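Private note to self, pasted from the team thread so I don't lose it. C-alpha cells:
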C-alpha cells in the first residue's frame, strides 16, 4: 500500500518520543475510548467537522452543495449526512471557515517529502518521526512502507499504538521501529470493554510478546478520575508490568482538550469533563509506580 489516509501532521512535537519530532496521525481506530481527544481519527474515512459558532447561516454552502444535502435551519447550515457525499464544496466556499474537511490521502513519496523537511531538527535533537492515530496499525501496509523508508534515511522511528491488532501486524514493523509508545488503559477486561469497546486480552498479550522480542517500549497510561485511578486497577497494572521489559512509564493525566470536537462531529462525549486527577493523586501514583525501577514520568 503506497497510499494512506492521514488525519494530521504535527511539526515540532516534543511529547511523542525523544527529541523534536514530526508526528503523523493516521485515521482509523478499532477502539472507542470515552475520553479520546482525537475522535476524528476513529473513522478511517473522510469526515466534515462543523464549527457551529462560526456559521452565520449565509446560505452559500446550501447553494453550492451539488447533492442538496444542506439546509438553513434556525440560522445555521445543517447537513443531511445520509445524502452528503463528502465532496468538500461546503468547506471550499464557506467564507467563515465553519466546516473543516478531515482526512487526506497521501502517497509514501508525498509523506516522506514532508517528513524530510525537518531532518535538521531530528539530527540536532535526537528526534525523528512518530506514527500515531487513531491506531496506525489499522493501515499496516502503508505504515510498514513508511517505516522502511524512514529507516533507509536513518530517521528515528516511533509507533504510538494501543496494541489492539493481530500479532502478525506488529511483527511486520518490529525491525523498522526504534521505539513503541504502548497504551495500557484498564486491566479488568469487563471495564476495558465498557470504556474502550474492545477486550484488552490481545493488547496485553501483544505487549508481552513485544517485550520478549526485545523492542524498546514506553508504556503510556492515561489516568482518568473515576475510571481507572482506583487502587485495584493501579496495583494490577503495576503487577503486570513487573514482568514486562520496558524503558519508561508515562502517567498521562486526563484532559478535555478534545471535548468540543464531539459536537462538531455530531458525536456524544460520554464523560463529564471533570475527570482530571489532582496533582496530589498523580504524585501518589508516581511513587507507587517507582517500585518497577524504571523511569516514571508524569506527562508525555
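Design output:
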Amino acid at each position: 500500500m503506497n497510499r494512506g489516509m492521514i488525519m494530521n501532521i504535527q511539526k515540532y512535537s516534543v511529547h511523542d518520543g525523544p527529541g523534536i519530532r514530526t508526528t503523523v496521525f493516521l485515521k482509523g481506530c478499532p477502539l472507542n475510548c470515552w475520553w479520546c481527544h482525537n475522535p476524528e481519527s476513529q473513522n478511517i474515512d473522510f469526515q466534515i467537522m462543523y464549527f457551529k459558532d462560526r456559521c452565520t447561516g449565509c446560505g452559500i454552502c446550501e447553494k453550492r452543495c451539488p447533492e442538496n444535502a444542506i439546509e438553513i435551519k434556525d440560522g445555521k447550515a445543517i447537513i443531511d449526512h445520509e445524502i452528503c457525499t463528502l465532496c468538500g464544496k461546503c468547506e471550499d466556499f464557506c467564507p467563515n471557515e465553519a466546516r473543516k474537511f478531515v482526512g487526506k490521502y497521501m502517497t509514501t513519496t508525498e509523506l516522506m517529502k514532508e517528513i524530510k523537511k525537518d531532518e535538521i531538527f531530528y539530527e540536532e535533537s535526537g528526534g525523528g518521526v512518530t506514527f500515531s492515530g487513531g491506531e496506525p496499525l489499522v493501515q499496516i501496509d502503508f505504515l510498514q512502507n513508511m517505516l522502511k523508508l524512514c529507516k533507509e534515511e536513518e530517521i528515528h522511528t516511533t509507533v504510538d499504538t494501543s496494541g489492539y491488532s493481530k500479532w502478525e501486524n506488529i511483527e511486520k514493523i518490529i525491525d523498522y521501529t526504534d521505539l513503541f509508545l504502548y497504551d495500557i488503559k484498564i486491566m479488568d477486561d469487563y471495564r476495558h470493554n465498557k470504556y474502550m469497546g474492545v477486550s484488552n486480552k490481545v493488547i496485553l498479550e501483544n505487549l508481552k510478546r513485544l517485550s520478549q522480542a526485545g523492542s524498546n517500549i514506553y508504556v503510556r497510561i492515561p489516568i482518568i478520575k473515576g475510571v481507572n485511578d482506583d487502587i485495584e486497577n493501579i496495583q494490577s497494572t503495576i503487577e503486570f508490568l513487573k514482568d514486562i521489559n520496558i524503558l519508561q512509564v508515562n502517567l498521562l493525566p486526563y484532559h478535555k482538550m478534545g471535548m468540543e470536537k464531539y459536537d462538531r462531529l455530531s458525536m456524544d462525549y460520554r464523560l463529564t469533563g471533570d475527570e482530571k486527577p489532582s496533582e496530589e493523586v498523580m504524585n501518589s501514583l508516581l511513587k507507587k509506580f517507582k517500585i518497577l525501577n524504571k523511569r516514571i514520568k508524569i506527562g508525555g
